[in-house]
């Protein structure tokens, strides 16, 4: 069947003005696309991913022009530096988008993988196999890179993606989705495997949240306000992601040089991401404390410190007195809360009280303490002597990621290809009936 040609048309012109009806019709198209993708062999999906990467590089001028409009509008609207950093695309980031798609193409296809199987005593042959979820909705903000990551992961895992990228990145996402859909057409895969509801604005997001029975799972990716809005209001099943009140604990035994490198990298490598450290916990007997604080101060980090940490700072440092609010804050910028603790027990209690379940790090040379930290921390990712910035699908060998799940159900931590699949039980017999 020939694909309908909707190029150049808005969603309202194609599906009507009512966002609930329009998003519902788009979801129906996504369902058809998902059925086609579910039958597509790996070679076809990989070819589509490689074409997506090629088209993104070939049309980088179009993407940068669109992104420039978003950035200009963001500055006029006094968008925060953290959100502008997430929004910004440049030549290096566009190359990164294309490279992530190529990395996805090189990864094994999870669809059809047998999780377990056996021949039962009665002769029935049982298999539990990985299958696509179907239609995946994603609501995010000011992150055009997420548009590409989600599209790539969805196609590779056999799912259709319905995207709400937000007004801040409207022009960037419109350009990217158009390029990705063109690549799908060239690859002879269903073009509605990737759609955006952005033309419907916030009403489109609300319709996506209410499309139970048409959308199989909804994933929010963004700040606390967005995530909690989706979690509280969606009738579609939700995988909760994102918010990162991330801690680094410098143990008494930590080597100063290692502690400095990890703390500075965790905080300053890219402050606008959810895996950036927000709170530093210092053991009161840690030799590394002064060196770590001096390095953070030199790097330009504004420190919110308790009374004991203030005594460890170099003269003239840029700092504020920490309040209860600081222990709960995800700064997403060059700021960090600092608390001095007297034991591993106290560090674990602090993290248990204030953590959002994302990532926690310990810097230590004590094997017993590291093992206890790993065992007792309830977050999705635990780092031992490594930067929190490694909580990332690409860094952990998953290719691109669709988000970082902070829940304990199904997917947890960086979500790659397998996390966008579910399982199906396949039972084969020879006329078996149950007695």
How many whole angstroms does the radius of gyration measure?
A: 24 Å
Question: Major β-sheet, in short?
Answer: 7 strands, parallel
Shape: globular
Number of helices: 16
Residue runs with pLDDT of under 50 for 5 or more positions: 1-5
Quaternary organization? single chain
What distance lies between the first and last C-alpha atoms, to the nearest angstrom?
46 Å
Strand residue percentage: 15-25%
User: Mean of the pLDDT scores?
Assistant: 93
Q: Structural class, please? A: alpha/beta
Helicity level? 40-55%
Summarize this structure as a short list of keywords or feature phrases.
435 residues, alpha/beta, four-stranded parallel sheet, seven-stranded parallel sheet, 16 helices
Task: Annotate the secondary structure layout.
Layout: H1 11-15, H2 19-39, H3 42-58, H4 60-76, H5 81-87, H6 91-106, E1 114-119, E2 125-132, E3 135-140, H7 144-156, E4 160-164, H8 170-186, E5 194-196, H9 201-209, E6 217-221, H10 224-233, E7 246-250, H11 256-268, E8 277-283, H12 289-298, E9 302-305, H13 307-310, E10 319-321, H14 324-327, E11 335-341, H15 344-354, E12 359-363, H16 367-376, E13 381-384, E14 404-405, E15 413-414, E16 421-428
Parallel strand pairs: 3-4, 3-6, 4-5, 7-8, 7-12, 8-11, 9-10, 9-11, 12-13
Antiparallel strand pairs: 1-2, 2-16, 14-15
Q: What do these coordinates show?
A:
It is an enzyme of class 1 (oxidoreductase). One of its GO terms (molecular function) is glutamate-5-semialdehyde dehydrogenase activity. It catalyses: L-glutamate 5-semialdehyde + phosphate + NADP(+) = L-glutamyl 5-phosphate + NADPH + H(+). Belongs to the gamma-glutamyl phosphate reductase family. It contains 16 helices and 16 strands. The protein has 435 residues and is of the alpha/beta class. Strands 10-9-11-8-7-12-13 form a seven-stranded parallel sheet, sandwiched between helices. Strands 5-4-3-6 form a four-stranded parallel sheet, with helices on both faces. Strands 1-2-16 form a three-stranded antiparallel sheet, with no helix packed on it. A hairpin with a 5-residue loop joins strand 1 and strand 2 (125-132). Helix 3 runs antiparallel to helix 6 (91-106) and helix 11 runs parallel beside helix 12 (289-298). The longest helix is centred in the N-terminal third of the chain and has 21 residues, at 19-39.
